[in-house]
Structure formats: structure tokens, C-alpha cells
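Risk mitigation, structural track. In case the binding assays with S-adenosylmethionine fail to produce interpretable data, a predicted complex structure has been prepared as a fallback.
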Amino acid sequence: MKIEEIKKLSREKWLPIIREESAKFLCELVKKQKPRKILEIGTCFGYSGCLMLSQSEDAFLTTIDCDEFAVAQAKKTFFDEGFAARVNVICDDGYSVLESLYKNKLKFDLIFLDGPKGQYFKYLPLLKKILSIGGFLVADDVLFHGYVKQNGPVKHKHRTIVTNLRKFLLDLSNDSNFDFKLLEFEDGVAVAKKISE
Ligand SMILES: C[S@@+](CC[C@H](N)C(=O)[O-])C[C@H]1O[C@@H](n2cnc3c(N)ncnc32)[C@H](O)[C@@H]1O
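Fallback model:
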């Protein structure tokens, strides 16, 4: 599958992919920082993965998604776009893969978190450990349609995800080992640079 077809498939299957401005920010970050090892949680059809790989020839991407259909499509995308040799696609639950990456002492220079929003806070302690010093953690959609910054009561159906995203942002912004920024365009992008261990 070519990258242009992904947008159409993502609309058909109701699986969102990174938006334009957030994608532009991510591409610029990869181009500037030249991370060698990138980890992505939330491969979907390989759209954001291809964007990152296209920005730096030295980058190798490890990307995780628990959806078998999405992973099969992503593998085709990476192959068709000529990135197959620089990517490892893992079909499994994000948290269990993070545990095994940590146990195996693997480190990453950039982590793009774009998976289950309600679990970002649970992933965070492991993400902090597997990120190299000087590396960046980028988390997409952290404002969850604006509900995260909204004052007053949150609708019952959104309460858990909003509470958990707030915990994630508070924990990251209070951590003195990280330089934290919240970019408030589109659905919100959290960016944190690891400055010490
Ligand atoms: C927003 S989409 C990712 C979009 C992709 N990063 C892009 O921009 O092209 C979120 C993805 O996270 C995956 N996901 C949700 N929960 C997950 C989990 N517990 N472990 C791994 N992947 C998960 C979904 O299957 C979905 O494909």
C-alpha cells in the first residue's frame, strides 16, 4: 500500500492517523535530531512511521500495534515505500512489549506515543527508563478533543481517559529529568526531552 492510500483507508476503518501540523512537527524533529533508534506505539497503517523514516536515512524504527489487520497493512506500506529493512513491526500489546524492551535494556532516541490514550500514564515509568538522555518523548492527542484542558465536569464516557491523560501530563511536567512542552495545536502534542537520568 502506498502512503497516499493510507488516508483513505484510515477514514474507512475509523482509525485516525497523525494530523497535518503534528506530522510536520514530528518530521522537523526527526530531521533536526537525527534519532538512530525510534520507538512508536501505535503503528496503525504505517503512516507516521513512514514519515519519520523518510526524514533520516540512519533511523531504525521499532513500531508496535495490537491490531492484526493494521499491522498487516503497515508491513505492506513499509515494503512499498522502501523502508522494510529499517523497520521492525511488532503485533502485540504496547505495555507488554515495553516491559520486554526494558528487561532487555534497549534504549531509544525518540519515542512516538500514539496508542491507547487512557494508558499513557501507565506506560510513562517504562518510557522514561528506555529513553536515552538527550532523547525525546512525543505523545499525540494528549488534549483529547479539548476535554483535558476544559474546566468543570467531564462527561461520564470520557472521564477515565481524561483523568488518565491529566495524570500523564502532570507527571511528565513535574519530572525534573525532563524538559516538557505542551503544543496546543490540533489535538495537543506533548514533547519532553530527557535531560538527566
Ligand atoms: C491513532 S492510531 C495510530 C496512528 C499512527 N501513529 C499514524 O499516525 O499513522 C492508534 C493505534 O494504536 C493501536 N493501539 C491501541 N491500543 C493499543 C495497545 N494496547 N497496544 C498496542 N497498540 C494499540 C490501535 O490499534 C491503533 O492502530
